Amino acid sequence: MRDMLYALLPEDGNYVALEAAQIALAERTGEEASIDQLGQCIFALVGQAKIDWLPDEKQLRRTLPNHNRSPPWPISCERDLEPWLERYLWQSARGFYSPPPPSLTVVVENTARVPVGTQWTRPDLSMACVTRYLYQPVPVFDLFTFELKLAYDCNVRAVHESLAHSSSANFSYLAVYAPEGDEASVQAETNLPIMLEQAGRHGVGIIQIRDPRRPRDGYRRLLDARRHAPSPAKIDGFIEDRFHSVNKLALRRWVKP
Prior knowledge:
The structure is a single chain. This protein has 257 residues and is an alpha+beta fold. The protein is 38% helix and 21% strand. It contains eight helices and nine strands.
């Protein structure tokens, strides 16, 4: 089981949720592994320095050469920001629902460099959520996309780039990194009113990031995205092309009534 768990993890070293790994392992082996059994496998793999384990977030990944356990800091490019936003999404997914659902399962995928589509159809991060309600007969599936921009790229064009993602997603967000005191952030603040106006018109959400290391107060949702309704075929194609097999196996299990 230990070797099978390791083989399931993404070769690029991206994190997957423990719950998703448990489901994927069951789908591959035909047997349900308990949390205790998984814990023993994880403990052994950590001892062999083969995986990294985040107990608070319940995430694991392969250990690769020159892997940093913590995301890069300071931030000099969008790639440095991606793992920070990914952590925020794992920890704050329930906050995208009002009121939060009684049951929520989540996978977060880095889709920034997936070799599919064009710049305007490749969001930096994607989050798939399956919610269950007490009196809803079937699970509800939602796909979120997130386009990341540093302060010097914060303009109306970024809003429309985020809007393009809604052709395959239910909710599309633009995440703007504009730290206080930064010279480029001053221009970003100047552009913000017209960005909010355009985003509100098209149903794009905007998240302002001041300090990505602080999930509680370093992020602020300035505008919530409105729900779009792309065809199920579009959503299926997006996930099939861009999500890792572990996450796809977990999602298929979770969406079953």
